Amino acid sequence: MKPQPNQRLSSQAMAFVLAGGRGSRLNELTDRRAKPAVYFGGKTRIIDFALSNALNSGIRKMAIATQYKAHSLIRHMQRGWNFFRAERNEYLDILPASQRVDESKWYLGTADAVAQNIDIIEDYDVRYVVILAGDHVYKMDYEVMLRQHVDTDADVTIGCLTVPREEASAFGCMAVDASGQITEFLEKPKNPPGMPGDPDHSLVSMGIYVFDWQFLRELLLRDAEDPNSSHDFGHDLIPQIVKFGKAMAHKFSESCVTSGLETEPYWRDVGTIDAFWQANIDLTDFTPKLDLYDNAWPIWTYAELVPPAKFIHDEDGRRGSAVSSLVAGDCIVSGSEVRNTLLFTGCRAHSFSTLDYVVALPYADIGRKAQLSRCVIDRGVQIPQGLVVGEDPEEDAKWFRRTEGGVVLITQAMLDKRAAVLG
């Protein structure tokens, strides 16, 4: 029996967030933390976007599957997402790969991460499961997608982005008919299919799936017994449903949440240093592509109790100032010039230093007379006095990680190695 039209489907759904990936393309930023735990936007972590979307959509049952270097992610969940109350039928479970099914098995793939926790999901007593990736930045109302899933009587509904056809080869692509039913699912094809009526654009997967739980449960159990399966949604389960069942595409533009300032649907995979730097710097624009000031769709996170930001010194050449920048709490800009920059909680910028197009993660300390541009500074890094980054590409690449896009990643280990060589 289908739910009544006035029922919120999100109240009958759970969100299962896949947050076990390392995110190796972020290089040293994920040496100590999983990609979903990487900082973003001045106060938040990447995973906060998927969880906030679920919460704002009305979903009050969530599970987060973790695996790679999960300590900082688990600690963030415990500190920032501990407000769920079981007596209100709300749950947030952290599900580390704990060899519950087999002592030799960690999570083997995205589908296996769900399959190993079937008994826990059963205890939620839910009708629908929304599978989410924990490493993308976007705002989306999952209730809209759930409603389409029910109205079309789909076996699976897949969240899709509309991208120019020439860019689609980097994604899992879908060919669809006029009704939106997926007729073919192609993993990173050389010749992506166009959309009906719009051959210059393609539909690509966001890694968001809606299932009826009982259907997914049976599918996972069969897949777990298949020795030839890689136990992955994109590689194994979705192509099977496309071939033998009913898979529907859901366009992100239909459920993207905007405040009125955003001019187009915003979704980012900040999976490289260049993409991570650019997405953060974009927030400093006069009208950013992503509105973090939308109180109607807040991005929930761990809100640290810290004092306000402070700007000190007011003399020529030594004026604490920030222009076109985001400055979080507990930052002190002491006689430093900050432009087009994002300073996370607790950063310090000392006298006569300049920062231009810099993303400084929490508690970074920029020494006097440092001149920094186009760089990402890892958490807690102590930038030495007089360090110059962003002017000499060869010198930057000698000590730090310099990307193809010219962005420099600075970690404490890199600085320590540099200091040991230079004495």
From TrEMBL:
Report the residue ranges that make up the Nucleotidyl transferase domain in this protein. 15-284
A GO MF term: glucose-1-phosphate adenylyltransferase activity
Which reaction(s) does its UniProt entry say it catalyses? alpha-D-glucose 1-phosphate + ATP + H(+) = ADP-alpha-D-glucose + diphosphate
Pathway assignment: Glycan biosynthesis; glycogen biosynthesis
Residues at the site labelled Could play a key role in the communication between the regulatory and the substrate sites: Q67, W106
EC code(s) of this entry: 2.7.7.27
Provide the top EC class: transferase
Listed Pfam families: Hexapep_GlmU, NTP_transferase
State which residue ranges cross the membrane.
none
Q: Where is the Glucose-1-phosphate adenylyltransferase/Bifunctional protein GlmU-like C-terminal hexapeptide domain?
A: 307-410
Q: Which InterPro entries match?
A: ADP-Glc_PPase (IPR011831), ADP_Glu_pyroP_CS (IPR005836), GlgC_bac (IPR023049), GlmU/GlgC-like_hexapep (IPR056818), NTP_transferase_dom (IPR005835), Nucleotide-diphossugar_trans (IPR029044), Trimer_LpxA-like_sf (IPR011004)
Question: Where along the chain is alpha-D-glucose 1-phosphate bound?
Answer: Y107, G172, E187, K188, S205
PROSITE patterns named in the record: ADP_GLC_PYROPHOSPH_1, ADP_GLC_PYROPHOSPH_2, ADP_GLC_PYROPHOSPH_3
Protein family membership: Belongs to the bacterial/plant glucose-1-phosphate adenylyltransferase family.
Please describe the quaternary structure of this protein.
Homotetramer.
Under the heading HAMAP family, the entry gives: GlgC
Could you tell me what this protein is called? Glucose-1-phosphate adenylyltransferase
Gene encoding this chain?
glgC
